[in-house]
Automatic annotation (TrEMBL):
GO molecular function ontology, one term from the record: UDP-N-acetylglucosamine 1-carboxyvinyltransferase activity
Transmembrane region(s): none
Protein name: UDP-N-acetylglucosamine 1-carboxyvinyltransferase
Classification via PANTHER family: UDP-N-ACETYLGLUCOSAMINE 1-CARBOXYVINYLTRANSFERASE (PTHR43783:SF1)
Subcellular location: Cytoplasm
Coiled-coil regions, chain positions: none
Keyword Protease annotated: no
Length: 431
């Protein structure tokens, strides 16, 4: 599927932030711990979720969509007929290790796929779960897992990663006793998983910090309904779209705790916006605000822009600053220190008229302000770099073609329809 984008149009109106893609993936995996019925509310209809649903159905999990709600009943699980094609298309498949070790003592999972962002080993998962008595070995096309004598543990993670923290949480939840996870990620999707586990009756201390204490229980058999938190990356997509099209937008239900640093950086770049009072999300835990954006003349920051673990600038929001910087006077340094390949994809912005320098696989310089121009571009095999090319095309006067938009469909629900509702002009083209 391809997009034909007639750029250069102002965006107007109101957009509501969708619920978290990454939160959905973690909570869907966590539902396998529950022998009762789980209903997850407001799940985004995106390709990443679809692939995970296909995997779970292939191993015996009962799943039903009710509009945007997902009903999950974890039956007897059998990996014999696992949908390998679907599994290989999602990085999140690795989060299944934690819940599956409570169903199976020995099993194999296909190697995960997802975004092509450079070296991403499973060592952090191996080193974390071995503390519980789990053995993981990575083969050429699969993960081999053995989990016989599980025990609670206290340990530090090899890296403060989101999925490894989720795997440790899901492992600890059904091991009676106290597990302490240090150097844990406190990111939004991890908090979503923590809130869900608490709904299941698992007590967790330290949510939102880098040390999580999990009070594991023997069994979970409970009918629960859980509301996913809103996605800060979705909010940031529309903030960036407003900046690139020099538009005034109302962006509602933005999770402010995961956008504060981004908004502060933008404020120092002279971005004009207004925030509403804070209110609670439907899960009663997440803090939300509404953002009103205004046309702004941006200036580049003197300091480099880089991501950090929460509460720092979110790793998935960093790419948006690459396209935003094209409209800021001066030179901006984007330091994407985590991934070896993501900054390379930012060079595709040059096709839209950006003036950039890729110093190495991690340092990306943007010279602004430049006038964006239309182009034909094939989507990079990575979600966020693909998204910023789409945003750039919104600001480029003329007709652009963005080909093979599967990367975007992995993480954004009905993105062309939502943008068109604000005044964008995007047509879907099929080969």
């Amino acid at each position: 599927m391809n997009f034909q984008i007639e750029g250069g149009h102002k965006l107007t109106g109101t957009i509501i932030t969708k619920n978290s893609k990454n939160g959905a993936m973690g909570v869907i995996c966590a539902s396998l711990l529950n022998q009762g019925k789980t209903i997850i509310k407001n799940v985004p209809h995106i390709e990443e979720v679809n692939r995970m649903v296909e995997v779970l159905e292939s191993i015996g999990v009962s799943i039903h969509w009710q509009n945007n709600d997902l009903e999950i009943i974890s039956n007897e699980i059998n990996l014999k007929n696992i949908n390998k094609e679907a599994a290989e298309k999602t990085r999140s498949i690795i989060i299944l290790i934690g819940p599956l070790i409570h169903h199976l003592k020995k099993f194999s999972l296909p190697q995960s796929g997802g975004c092509k962002l450079g070296a991403r080993t499973v060592n952090p998962h191996l080193f974390a779960l071995e503390n519980f008595g789990v053995k993981i070995s990575a083969k050429a096309k699969s993960y081999e897992i053995v989990a016989k004598d599980l025990r609670p543990a206290e340990f530090a993670l090899y890296e403060s990663g989101d999925t490894v923290t989720e795997n440790a949480l899901l492992t600890a939840a059904l091991i009676p006793g106290k597990t302490v996870i240090k150097f844990a990620s406190a990111n939004y999707m991890v908090q979503d998983v923590c809130f869900f586990l608490e709904n299941l009756g698992v007590k967790i201390d330290g949510i939102g910090t880098s040390t999580l204490t999990v009070h594991g229980i023997k069994e979970i058999k409970k009918d629960v309904t859980y509301f996913l938190g809103e996605d800060p990356i979705d909010s940031m997509f529309f903030i960036a779209s407003a900046i690139i099209t020099n538009s005034s937008l109302n962006i509602k239900r933005c999770p402010i705790d995961f956008l504060e640093i981004e908004l502060l950086k933008l404020k120092k770049m002279n971005f004009k916006y207004k925030l509403s009072q804070v209110y609670k999300g439907l899960n009663g835990r997440i803090n939300l605000i509404d953002i009103k954006t205004y046309p702004s003349e941006l200036t580049a920051l003197e300091d480099k822009i880089e991501s950090h673990p929460y509460p720092g600038l979110n790793i998935d929001n960093l790419p948006f600053f690459a396209i935003i910087a094209t409209q800021a006077r001066g030179q901006t340094l984007i330091h994407d220190w985590i991934y070896e390949k993501r900054a390379i994809h930012y060079k595709e912005l040059d096709k839209l008229g950006a003036d950039t320098i890729l110093a190495d696989p991690h340092r990306f310089y943007v010279n602004g302000k430049t006038e964006l121009k239309p182009a034909e571009v094939i989507c990079p095999p990575a979600l966020r770099p693909a998204a910023i090319i789409l945003i750039g095309m919104l600001g480029a006067k003329g007709t652009s073609i963005l080909r093979n938009v599967y990367s975007i469909s992995r993480g954004y629900e009905e993105i062309s329809e939502r943008l068109n509702s604000l005044g964008a002009k995007i047509k879907i083209l099929r080969d």
